[in-house]
Amino acid sequence: MAEQAGQIVKLDDWVISRVCGQVRSWQDAGLPVVPVAINVSGTRFASRNFPRYLLEHIHQHDIPPSAITLEITESVFIHDAATALTVLTALRTLGVRLALDDFGTGYSSLSYLQRFQFDKIKVDRSFVRGLGQPADALTIVRAITHLGHNLGLTVTVEGVETQEQLTVLRELGCDQMQGYLFARPAPMTN
């Protein structure tokens, strides 16, 4: 809805500002710096000035760039891959972490993993729901995990809700898992 209303860039900017401020407050409280993931819309990401904008917030809040992981879907590459490459390269130079979100759905292309320098790939939750029912989902998650590891990427799986799913994903060698099995969304705390 925010994209349709022309408000997505404002929403992205608000989230970036809030996340950077929250990371700063956690640092001030003596907590360790852990990367916080921010989903960035294709519209915001397509702006060549996005890396500069993000860097301004990182400096303003005096946080390390590695504290931010930008989750980007493959759709950002469809319209202007050259701009996407320029922006990704600039973000990588800043020290921001990059994750290819919802991998395996939509516009999946192995060339994105080869051409763009990501730190991690995130396996879409739709494959996790299918674990145990026809073997196709299991085969796909295994293949993505193997591919990611061979490319030196961290493999994160979304949507883990049961102990059985966790067991299978651990056996497959997935690096990180997230989902309701571990925690429900919670308010920020200082």
Q: What would the principal axes of the Cα set say about the shape? A: globular
Which percent range fits the helix content? Answer: 40-55%
Taken as a percent bin, the fraction of beta residues is 5-15%
DSSP summary: helix tally? 9
Series of secondary-structure elements, N-terminal to C-terminal: HEHHEHHEHEHHEHE
Please tell me the overall pLDDT.
88
- Major sheet details: 6 strands, parallel
**Termini separation (Å)?**
31 Å
Secondary-structure class? alpha/beta
β-strand number: 6
Poorly predicted runs are none
* Spatial ordering of strands, largest sheet: 1-2-3-4-5-6
Radius of gyration: 17 Å
Secondary structure elements and their pairing?
Elements: H1 8-28, E1 36-39, H2 42-45, H3 50-61, E2 68-73, H4 76-79, H5 81-94, E3 97-103, H6 110-115, E4 120-123, H7 125-129, H8 136-150, E5 154-157, H9 163-172, E6 176-177
Parallel strand pairs: 1-2, 2-3, 3-4, 4-5, 5-6
Question: Which tags fit this structure?
Answer:
single chain; 190 residues; alpha/beta; six-stranded parallel β-sheet; 6 strands; 14% strand; globular
How would you characterize the overall build of this protein?
This protein has a 6-stranded parallel beta sheet. Helices cover 48% and strands 14% of the residues. It has helices at residues 8-28, 42-45, 50-61, 76-79, 81-94, 110-115, 125-129, 136-150, 163-172, and strands at 36-39, 68-73, 97-103, 120-123, 154-157, 176-177. By secondary structure, it is an alpha/beta fold.
